[in-house]
């Protein structure tokens, strides 16, 4: 769970950073000609940003699975011509439950375990990392940074509030200071032409490394299918926002483009090797970072739980839990606590304002929620021609520990989160012990197995068949083949 740092700006970014499906990005580098080797300045910059990315996206994983991902990533990155040695590339498997991949100038490549779990062969793994390295090799980041500086991230919050225009308001300025930090730059979008160029480079790298170049298209298909499934399971009508569309324009059409570029070329996929290596990989939330079960969030280490309002969905990140809906957005987080809950609430408000700005609740009120001392307040902020309410609801769990929600809604709409504020509670040691991780289990289909029979073994209470098909890259027409390996998700023993 997070340390406090401009949470409202994070609220503005929640639909981008926390929800991005394979959000690919590079932090800004020098405007070096495409195809040039890694420069000393880029290498220094990558080393500087690396710890920030690792911390932001759940930490680096280690062990055989991480070593395998590193091996494949270094092999495909070498095809870019950015360096002459595989050791020049630092490939990190991130402990994150969002489908995400990105690269940093200087030879740093990142992919989350969740995205790896969605893949079905080694060629797909190489393809997605080749795509990210392609952005670096093409030096897309300089143009991207110029766009980011113009946009200042203000448009993101506008979409959160369903069309509220920010203008040059205090609220609009709240998000600006994060526009230059490495983790948030990992969530800014490329143009469609840049995405297509990175796809093309990724396919070129696949060919050069001997992989099946069609893997780029099949991976894009799985990501588009996962995006649509997530939207359906979360009750969202729009499957393109805020997830993939935040950083990858029009993924569905890119599937056909990638397959057309690959043509009838062949190459290895190393499917059996890949499935053997990812067997046992954690899937979904890491209990050490809390888990989402339906509308409930449960954190066994922090011994707390709360429930999102009806019609809202949650995304768990390394720094915060975001709660998203059409009528508002919130995040649950923590900050340093001196023992005074009133001072804590005021501190959070001021942290939302950013440097040089002032933000304070109109009044503070004390209460008790399920036996937990709490305090809350709301501030109304002008936003262009409209107004919004910023609310903070904080809970004192111990003398040196507090947690809080920071929420933003259209003016007068803060009550949409009341049920969530009231639902915060402590959990027992027995409840905490029952929270166990899900993992990928690779099984071999037997005679008589069907999609329904294998999907019935998935450790979910909803969408079992749909989840199974997406996880294995199966279309609605694909059937189970006896003797073939498939992935299911099970509760770890």
UniProtKB/TrEMBL annotation:
Keywords: Hydrolase, Metal-binding, Metalloprotease, Protease, Signal, Zinc. The keyword 4Fe-4S does not apply. This is M48 family metalloprotease. GO terms for cellular component: membrane. It comes from Croceibacterium xixiisoli. Its cofactor is Zn(2+). PANTHER family: METALLOENDOPEPTIDASE OMA1, METALLOENDOPEPTIDASE OMA1, MITOCHONDRIAL. CDD domains: LysM. Residues 1-22 form the signal peptide. The keyword Hydrolase applies. Residues 441-488 form the LysM domain. It holds the Pfam family Peptidase_M48. GO terms for molecular function: metal ion binding; metalloendopeptidase activity. One of its GO terms (biological process) is proteolysis involved in protein catabolic process.
């Amino acid at each position: 769970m997070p340390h406090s740092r401009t949470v409202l700006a994070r609220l503005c970014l929640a639909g981008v950073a926390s929800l991005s499906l394979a959000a690919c990005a590079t932090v800004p580098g020098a405007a070096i000609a495409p195809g040039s080797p890694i420069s000393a300045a880029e290498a220094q910059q990558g080393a500087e940003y690396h710890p920030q990315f690792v911390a932001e996206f759940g930490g680096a994983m280690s062990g055989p699975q991480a070593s395998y991902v590193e091996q494949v990533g270094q092999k495909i990155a070498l095809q870019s011509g950015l360096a002459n040695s595989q050791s020049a590339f630092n490939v990190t498997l991130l402990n994150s439950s969002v489908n995400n991949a990105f690269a940093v100038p200087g030879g740093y490549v990142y992919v989350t375990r969740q995205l790896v779990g969605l893949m079905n062969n080694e060629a797909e793994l190489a393809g997605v990392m080749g795509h990210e390295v392609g952005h670096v090799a093409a030096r897309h980041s300089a143009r991207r940074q110029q766009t980011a500086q113009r946009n200042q991230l203000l448009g993101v919050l506008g979409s959160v509030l369903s069309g509220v225009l920010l203008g040059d308001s205090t609220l609009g300025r709240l998000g600006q200071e994060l526009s230059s930090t490495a983790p948030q730059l990992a969530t800014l979008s490329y143009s469609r032409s840049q995405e297509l160029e990175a796809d093309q480079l990724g396919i070129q790298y696949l060919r050069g490394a001997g992989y099946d170049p069609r893997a780029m298209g099949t991976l894009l298909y799985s990501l588009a299918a996962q995006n649509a499934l997530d939207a359906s399971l979360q009750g969202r009508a729009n499957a393109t926002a805020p997830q993939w569309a935040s950083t990858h324009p029009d993924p569905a059409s890119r599937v056909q483009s990638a397959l057309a570029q690959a043509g009838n070329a062949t190459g290895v996929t190393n499917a059996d090797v890949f499935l053997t290596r990812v067997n046992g990989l954690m899937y979904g939330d890491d209990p050490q970072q809390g888990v989402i079960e339906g509308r409930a969030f449960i954190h066994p280490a922090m011994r707390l739980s709360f429930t999102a309002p009806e019609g809202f969905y949650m995304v768990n990140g390394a720094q915060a839990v975001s709660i998203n809906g059409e009528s508002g957005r919130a995040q649950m987080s923590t900050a340093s606590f001196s023992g005074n809950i009133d001072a804590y609430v005021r501190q959070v408000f001021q942290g939302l304002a950013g440097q040089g700005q002032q933000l304070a609740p109109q009044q503070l009120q004390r209460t008790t929620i399920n036996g937990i001392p709490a305090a809350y307040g709301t501030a109304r902020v002008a936003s262009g021609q409209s107004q919004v309410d910023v609310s903070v609801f904080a809970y004192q769990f111990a003398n040196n520990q507090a947690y809080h929600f920071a929420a933003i809604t259209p003016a007068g709409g803060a009550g949409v989160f009341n049920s969530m504020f009231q639902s915060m509670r402590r959990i027992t040691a027995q409840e905490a012990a029952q929270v166990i991780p899900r993992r990928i289990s690779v099984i071999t289909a037997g005679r008589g197995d069907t999609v329904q029979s294998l999907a019935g073994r998935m450790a979910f209470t909803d969408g079992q068949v749909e989840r199974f098909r997406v996880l294995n890259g199966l279309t609605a027409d694909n059937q189970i083949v006896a003797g073939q390996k498939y992935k299911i998700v099970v509760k770890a023993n």
